[in-house]
Amino acid sequence: MTQFPKPTALTSTSISSFDSPASPANRVASPPSNTPKDSFCPSTCTTDPVALLILGAGWTSQFLLPLLQARKISHAETTRSGHDDTIPFTFDPAASRHDTAPYERLPPATTILITFPLKGPGQSKLLTHLYNETHPAIEPNWIQLGSTGIFTAPEWNDSCASYDTSNQRAIAEDELLSLLGTKACVLNLAGLYGGERQPRNWLTRVAKTKEDVQGKGALHLIHGRDVARAIVCAHEVLASLPNSKTGLPTGEDPIGSAADDRSEPKLPEQISLHPSKSSIAGKRHIITDLHVYDWWDLFQTWGAHARDAAHGYLEDDGDEDVLQYERWVLELMREEGVRALPRDGGDLGRRLDGRGFWEAVGCYPEEGRVV
What we know:
Layout: H1 15-18, H2 24-27, E1 50-55, H3 61-70, E2 75-79, E3 87-88, H4 101-104, E4 109-114, H5 123-134, E5 141-147, E6 156-157, H6 168-180, E7 184-189, E8 191-193, H7 203-206, H8 210-214, E9 218-219, E10 221-223, H9 224-240, H10 254-259, H11 268-271, E11 284-287, E12 293-294, H12 295-310, H13 325-336, E13 351-352, H14 355-361
Parallel strand pairs: 1-2, 1-4, 2-3, 4-5, 5-7, 6-13, 7-11, 8-10
Antiparallel strand pairs: 9-12
């Protein structure tokens, strides 16, 4: 079973500091001395090959970058502005299929992580086409971060469940998987939390009245550190599968070799993969912390915190009926015959089963429950 080291704690002084990538020395690996760079990097490429290229280094990067450094996985990141030594890049869905200039500065990569949402038909095809057009000698893997919001059935939903095929993000995800098959996967993430983003601070945005509370069922979450673990697991599995251009696992082609740390041997779990792990390729996966939270339970637990945090910011702040979450929950329990919290699963409506991905990759979320 894959074991990951705990990433080094980061200070949370500001949101912008979370988006700051590591220094270039840590982010980008040099090509192996016995492999000419020009053999797999176009002449316009401005960056050395990496194992993981992150398109859009945002909130998730505060957790992903430390884990990549701990695992000695070479990486490069893009941002719109190119701040902090990242690569300036903006995906333009209206761009021509011949507008390759923004893609020529991107490095060759074993795996490309798309963190921003692609929507509707054509966007996945355009993005992958323009990257492949400027990097014809390689065949990268692709990971798209998506949302579990596409799973809408008011019952248990797993990764194989029906989903809203009219959802614009789902359409783009389907297109990516159709185009690339086992060279891609989609990670549909539950509610993201970690760092300054904490669920106990969401209560006043979710519900301000008893009627609002009554309508809330299940909540599903995933911590940023476990998102990072899922991304690394998906990358390592996809990189272990044969590359159609070389016949070798992607991690053994010249680009994969560029990412290796030659001073230390690979860990056993990085080269010994259970056959079931290949089942994540070409599919979408629900990523949760394996818990189903009851919003009523959370309102009852965090009600006092929500009132304290909202003091002075809400209209009628002195009204005794403002944000009385604990009283509202107790009244609702009596009215609806709920004897204890959390409520039974059938009372929560839509629920997500996140076991499949973690079972397939032989890894598991480590952050535990939020309460």
